[in-house]
Specification:
This protein is 21% helix and 27% strand. With 110 residues, it is α+β, with helices and mostly antiparallel strands. Adenosine monophosphate binds next to loops.
């Protein structure tokens, strides 16, 4: 989608701190990290949210890549995976993405 910021990142039109890419998926660091490790797993194909995702194979790939990326980042022992769906739940970018958060939360006491 032409006005989607994550589509622009996928197309290389906007820079990102990319850490993983394959034919279907890109993963990059969140620009406003909420934990010492905070990355976003994003399908290259545009789906506005989990409510629109209708590709079981891609859904499987999105989940199965998470532990690989967590291991790459050294947080596979303990991390959270978050998918916000809808503005009321905090979804601010209308292109489905999984957050991977690991390590201490930023701004929170241990
Ligand atoms: P959500 O609020 O669940 O939709 O998550 C969207 C996330 O995208 C937020 O955590 C933002 O900080 C992050 N974000 C927005 N723009 C960018 C960008 N250009 N590069 C990296 N992360 C971004």
């Amino acid at each position: 989608m032409s006005d989607c910021i994550f589509c622009k990142i996928v197309a290389g039109e906007i820079p990102s701190k990319k850490i993983y890419e394959d034919d279907d998926i890109i993963c990059f660091h969140d620009i406003h990290p909420a934990a010492s490790v905070h990355v976003l797993v994003v399908p290259k194909k545009h789906f506005s949210s989990l409510n629109e995702l209708d590709d079981p194979e891609l859904a499987g790939k999105l989940f199965l890549v998470v532990p690989k990326i967590a291991k790459m980042l050294g947080v596979d022992g303990a991390y959270r995976t978050v998918v916000n769906t809808g503005k009321g739940a905090g979804q601010s970018v209308a292109h489905i993405h999984l957050h991977i958060l690991g390590g201490p939360r930023i701004g929170m006491p241990e």
